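## Example record

The block below lists the input lines for one assembly entry, exactly as stored, with component labels intact.
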Amino acid sequence: MHAIPELKKVDRWTEKRSMYGVYDNIGILGAFKAHPKELIIAPCWVKAFRGNELQRLTRKKRMVGDRMMTDDKLQLEKRVRLLYRRYNRTGKYR
Amino acid sequence: MFRCSVVFCGRGAAKRFASSFSSESALPPNLLLPTNLVDPARLRRGPPPSDSALPLLSRCDAVVPAHLRPLQTWVETLERLDAEPLGLTELHPDVFAAHPRLDILHQVETWQRNFKRVSHAHTKVRGEVRGGGKKPWNQKGSGRARHGSIRSPLWRGGGVANGPRGPTSYYYMLPMKVRVQGLKVALSSKMAQDYLYVVDSLDLPSPDPQYLLDLIKHKHWGESVLIVDVGEEFSENILRATANLKTVNIIPAMGLNVHSMLKHEALVLTLNTIRFLEEKLLWHDGRFTPLYPFSLPYSDLP
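Predicted structure tokens for the full assembly:
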């Protein structure tokens, strides 16, 4: 094979790329009426929250659990049960 | 025909030169130029001399420390293509002559990229994949390897063992003073590298984008320009001129951030923006630690 694949042509100045990061300092420069965490577009249980899988799933169950589909709820509970046992009963750091 | 290629490594840049035919006058297509090349046309104008005849259009409102002097820069105008600077303005040294802390710039830039990041990569585990509850064949006797379900990670079509799980967020907040210092360092770096320009107001004579491009080319501002102004209203001419331009962008002063300053080569501020930024950024130097969040009322917020 002698073909050198062509580099993909990336436009570095699209609207999204040139306006990236605007309003990230809206708190400091905007009299603290808004917080940059309000800029995040994400499901509500993950917005401005960082945690491992167990923490995310339990937060999802608390916030959104009563309007989840039954199959999804069941899988969530199974996963929570598994992760609880794995984090708290197995391994070196329990 | 012979091919000659000379490779030498400079002090921070690599320049590779390959010319296949010796009688070629055009630049070779795979020429790599170092990124720190200086455009000699930009070096002609220096900082304003201390005995310049132009008027001082605006002074620093905030108190300048006794051991520092305010910086001075030209104030340009966008009205005419080849106008002389209108006057001088003072810039606070703590905001526009801060120490060039590259590590703080790196921290703030990575924070800006990551705190909004939510990765939606998700894979199904063996328990979530449809099927696979029944043991496929008996433990002993069939001659095949022993398995408990057809959806274990060993199987084709089975679940992923340690894959990405659900929407993951990478949110964290840097301390407020670090973010403020990042803004100050970015502004100081632009100032120090002669990429900061001050304009009295953003009044263009016509809404033509070509006029703006000619102005930038004539004044040697750079390839990409970020224009910042205070206030919610912008004049229609500047909005129409920058609407279809990719590398010339206009943002309100509340949207100023380190990533945009690093992305665009030149930064154009108005006099009102400079006063606004100095007021907002210098307040953090002498504030008390908050007993309750700043979103609740304080008597001395800027």
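Chain A touches chain B through 39 residues (CB under 8 Å). DSSP finds four helices and no strands in chain A.
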